Amino acid sequence: MPPNRAEPRVHEIRIQDCADTEEAIWLQEPVERLLCPDPDHEPPCPIPWSFSLAEQTGGPGDTSTTLILGVYASHGQAAQVARQVRALVGEGRPVLVGEGDPEDFEELVEQYRIERGMRRS
């Protein structure tokens, strides 16, 4: 049976074509402010998230860095975050969204589990 697209799961929002690691790291703060405008708010965050980096190879001597934003959300929520990120970084930089591997984002799954318990308390 295919997964329920409304159920939260790990998604990757890939911000591609960063010139180098420094540029990808620089982009983290504005994306972070988009997701969490008030870093001092009471938990939980509406959508748990984290960052990682990957090298993107286009051919010999043609490499760039991809900033990967992992979110634990429904398909619709992940698509909405991707649209917001695309608007933030500009149309000239590809922003792709797809399902992520929960093993690559174990902290997101754990954060969701803990925060979900907090909401029920």
Defining traits:
121 residues; alpha+beta; 4-stranded antiparallel sheet
Q: SSE layout and pairings?
A:
Layout: E1 9-18, H1 21-35, E2 49-59, E3 62-73, H2 75-89, E4 95-99, H3 106-120
Antiparallel strand pairs: 1-3, 1-4, 2-3
Helix pairs in contact: 1-2
Give an overview in words.
A hairpin with a 2-residue loop joins strand 2 and strand 3 (62-73). The protein has 121 residues and is α+β, with helices and mostly antiparallel strands. The chain has a 4-stranded antiparallel beta sheet with strand order 2-3-1-4. Helix content is 37%, strand content 31%. The protein is globular and about 50 Å long. 25% of the residues are buried. It has helices spanning 21-35, 75-89, 106-120, and strands at 9-18, 49-59, 62-73, 95-99. Helix 1 (21-35) packs across helix 2 (75-89). The chain contains 3 helices and 4 strands, in the order βαββαβα.
Structure in a nutshell:
By secondary structure, this protein is an alpha+beta fold. The protein has helices spanning 21-35, 75-89, 106-120, and strands at 9-18, 49-59, 62-73, 95-99.
- Largest sheet, described in full? 4 strands, antiparallel
The rounded distance between the terminal residues' Cα atoms is 32 Å
N-to-C order of helices and strands: EHEEHEH
Strand content: 25-35%
**Cross-sheet strand order for the largest sheet:** 2-3-1-4
Average pLDDT metric:
86
What's the number of extended β-strand segments? 4
Shape: globular
- Rg from Cα: 15 Å
The helical percent reads: 25-40%
- Poorly predicted tracts of residues: none
